[in-house]
């Protein structure tokens, strides 16, 4: 709904579909981060939208599951040209949002994961009293509604929610970056902005490639759009 509203506002201001949905989403992500206290940064514009729609199964398969270790995480980001620093910085987006219990309840049942703080586990069991519940909980329990570096403080305190979060501190290949971001929020903000811009330029279409969708949810009809 929000993207459709932005699409309509821009179309009115520009006299038609001039700004692509890809650019709208890129700008919306940046501004959303800024509105809750995160860094302000510039992003390149001029993207075009793809002329095909990726199947849901293909999109889901591209994301490593929340049970992933660092080896799997690094392999996943390497496929799209990102590295360990990008992985750790972009994972900091987990300072916002919620997760369903089924994404991490294997760390609580039948017994608590040895890498999880016992008091944190007891707190989580209040929201997730058994396996396979549909409940949700904040990913960053310290400041769930602010974009800051407390996600990394969580990891140092063994209070990372997902396995794929906590392993960033457990594994020597990424531990140093977690420690650095936990004590230096400006450095985290700088690296997060750099990695977001880097990610936003992966497999970009420009010029006459693709199209500019008039409805961000579907491809343009034959002969429609630009």
Word description of this protein:
There is one protein chain. The chain has helices at residues 2-14, 21-35, 56-62, 70-78, 84-91, 118-127, 150-156, 163-170, 172-183, 185-200, and strands at residues 98-100, 136-138. It folds into two domains: 1-50 and 205-220, Orthogonal Bundle (Peroxidase, domain 1); 59-200, Peroxidase, domain 2 (Orthogonal Bundle), CATH 1.10.420. The chain has 226 residues and is an all-alpha fold. Disulfide bonds join 21-216, 101-128. Heme b binds at residue 94.
Sequence-ordered SSE layout with sheet pairings:
Layout: H1 2-14, H2 21-35, H3 56-62, H4 70-78, H5 84-91, E1 98-100, H6 118-127, E2 136-138, H7 150-156, H8 163-170, H9 172-183, H10 185-200
Antiparallel strand pairs: 1-2
Helix pairs in contact: 5-9, 5-10, 7-9, 8-9, 9-10
Short description:
With 226 residues, the protein is mostly helical. Helix content is 46%, strand content 3%.
Spans of at least 5 consecutive residues with low confidence = none
Count of helices? Answer: 10
* Helical amount: 40-55%
Order of helices and strands: HHHHHEHEHHHH
CATH topology label of the largest domain: Peroxidase, domain 2
**Proportion of beta-strand residues:** under 5%
- Beta strand count: 2
Query: What structural class do you assign from the helix and strand content?
Result: mainly alpha
Shape descriptor reads globular
Query: Would you identify the CATH H-level superfamily of the largest domain?
Result: Peroxidase, domain 2
Largest sheet: 2 strands, antiparallel
The overall pLDDT, averaged over residues, is 94
> Which class of the largest domain in CATH terms?
Mainly Alpha
CATH architecture descriptor text of the largest domain: Orthogonal Bundle
From the N-terminal CA to the C-terminal CA, the straight-line distance is: 22 Å
Oligomeric state, counting identical vs distinct chains = single chain
> How are strands sequenced across the largest beta sheet?
1-2
Q: Over all CA atoms, what is the radius of gyration?
A: 19 Å
- Tell me the count of domains: 2
Binding site for heme b: 94
Protein name: peroxidase
Cofactor: heme b; Ca(2+)
Family: Belongs to the peroxidase family. Ascorbate peroxidase subfamily.
